[in-house]
Amino acid sequence: MNSSKPIVRKSSNSSVDRIYERLKQMAMNYKFRPGEPLNEVELAASFGVSRTPLREVLNRLVAEGLLDFVPRRGFSCRALDTKMIFDLYEVRCGLEMMSAKLATERATDAEVSTLVTLWKTASQKFGELSPLECAQCDERFHEQIATLSRNAELLHSLQAINARAHYLRLISMEKVHYRHNTCDEHQLILKAIQKRNVEAAVNCMSAHVSLRQEQLVEVIKEGIARLYMT
């Protein structure tokens, strides 16, 4: 009688998650040239996996708007399209305004106080952080407000948009005046939320995101120059 135990294969979920996180960061930061087909064989070899889990990740990133897929051409990094970016920021503005409204109405005093303290600490060292750290800090601020809205779908949607807009946010945070404006505008948003002034919170958030839209033209030009002219 064979008493050997059956071989139990480990789930491939850990490998898929690992590949997903790395490829997502690469796509968010345009580590692939826009429009250039991705070499699946080389990618699979670099991650030490077969093409099956790689394909699973690539399809997931397509669904999230971080990659493109064209039949018979395969997967490629998305283009930095001006119209798409403006559309994205219009949607972001709506989400952020709703986020501010609901957070002002639903967050507890303790939660608001915690967010105020967190941002005060972050803003004090904002000028010393790297552009990447500033971008991540800014994303967290907006996502924390969305968390306080008690609306999981709103938070999920905002996180998806932040991922697609990350590259431009990163370029923006290289500019000192942009960092200063971000800090000042975040303070105004927090003051309105603290006072439970829904109208002021929504208006401050709208002004904050709309100002980013006005600056988008300059940032998009810089992004295109880096991606297509170097």
UniProtKB/TrEMBL annotation:
<dbReference type="InterPro" id="IPR000524">
    <property type="entry name" value="Tscrpt_reg_HTH_GntR"/>
</dbReference>
<protein>
    <submittedName>
        <fullName>GntR family transcriptional regulator</fullName>
    </submittedName>
</protein>
<dbReference type="InterPro" id="IPR008920">
    <property type="entry name" value="TF_FadR/GntR_C"/>
</dbReference>
<keyword id="KW-0238">DNA-binding</keyword>
<dbReference type="InterPro" id="IPR036388">
    <property type="entry name" value="WH-like_DNA-bd_sf"/>
</dbReference>
<dbReference type="Pfam" id="PF00392">
    <property type="entry name" value="GntR"/>
</dbReference>
<keyword id="KW-0804">Transcription</keyword>
<dbReference type="InterPro" id="IPR036390">
    <property type="entry name" value="WH_DNA-bd_sf"/>
</dbReference>
<dbReference type="Pfam" id="PF07729">
    <property type="entry name" value="FCD"/>
</dbReference>
<feature type="domain" description="HTH gntR-type">
    <location>
        <begin position="13"/>
        <end position="80"/>
    </location>
</feature>
<keyword id="KW-0805">Transcription regulation</keyword>
<dbReference type="InterPro" id="IPR011711">
    <property type="entry name" value="GntR_C"/>
</dbReference>
